[in-house]
Amino acid sequence: MTDPFFRVDNLNTWFFTRQGVIKSVRDISFELSRGEVLGIVGESGSGKSVTGMSIMGQIDEPGHIVSGSIALDGEELTTLSFEEMRHYRGKRIAMVFQNPLMTLNPLMRVRDQMYEAIGEHENISRKDMHDRCIEALKAVGIPSPDERLNAYPHEMSGGMRQRVVIAIALLLGPDMIIADEPTTALDVTIQAQIIYHIRRLIDEHGLGMIWITHDLSTLSELADRIMVMYAGATMEIGTTEEIIGGARHPYTRKLLDSVPSRNVPGQKLNQIPGNMPSLLALGEGCPFASRCDRAADICSEPVPAIQLSATHHIWCYHPFED
Ligand SMILES: Nc1ncnc2c1ncn2[C@@H]1O[C@H](COP(=O)(O)OP(=O)(O)OP(=O)(O)O)[C@@H](O)[C@H]1O
Prior knowledge:
Blueprint: E1 4-17, E2 20-33, E3 37-41, H1 48-55, E4 63-72, E5 75-76, H2 82-88, E6 93-96, H3 100-103, H4 110-119, H5 126-139, H6 145-150, H7 158-170, E7 176-180, H8 188-205, E8 208-213, H9 216-222, E9 225-230, E10 233-239, H10 240-245, H11 250-258, E11 306-307, E12 313-314
Bound molecules: adenosine-5'-triphosphate.
């Protein structure tokens, strides 16, 4: 793995609503190297998507980045204008969403959508565009790519559509891709196929990837490192082995316990009892304390990061022992 080319430092993204300030992302820091997949995991509402959208420069009113830094190859992105950020979006940082129909236009053939994506940033011949599209479709394992170029999105299965979206993300040779729950709606076999192709792409092209999900089991197969988020804050970050095999934070342990066993068909996801606190009224301490079996008085105090190894950090006063 190379040195990190992408860094997020103490990022805070808040929404200033009539009800009050929603602190969706609070003091998040992480880095990404080429050829690395960082998984961001957490329950619904933990701030995963807002983190992704902050990186893409796509936080709209009433929200904005309140403080912190997002840097790509040393260049600060948070101070760029919307127009300046356009150069980065798609070209250097691409994003893939859960629902391919959010990205694909149902009225346009795949070819025209792919050509349009290239044309926004580059002026190349139709022959070169065609070759690049075929290459991108092949890279995500789409059979008969020439035929697919002619198709409309509704003529393809959900899995194929999602592969086309990932192919579009690859067209401009980005440095990194942010994927927000890209395989959640797909069945497990199709998910596994897409993950296989993604991992190959990352390894072969040295892409960086942030994979946002609520599903730890997908990350165990795909991610190099995992960041666990809860109520806008990082609870634990470490290598996949450190998180899946050696989680120390009580929230990560609960998340791991909620993953259904693969050996028991039909078993439902175990819910973590209780609800996430309102992001409008967060105290200074650990946001998980109200649902945590190990919580004590001290957990209402600000929680410092504890370094467990060069790669493993937790924010907890009462972590599990090794
Ligand atoms: N435009 C907005 N205005 C107000 N609050 C917002 C806005 N967008 C997001 N939020 C709030 O920010 C918090 C974090 O949302 P986010 O979508 O990042 O969570 P998430 O972890 O990605 O959840 P999910 O898994 O459901 O997508 C939520 O409480 C959400 O209500």
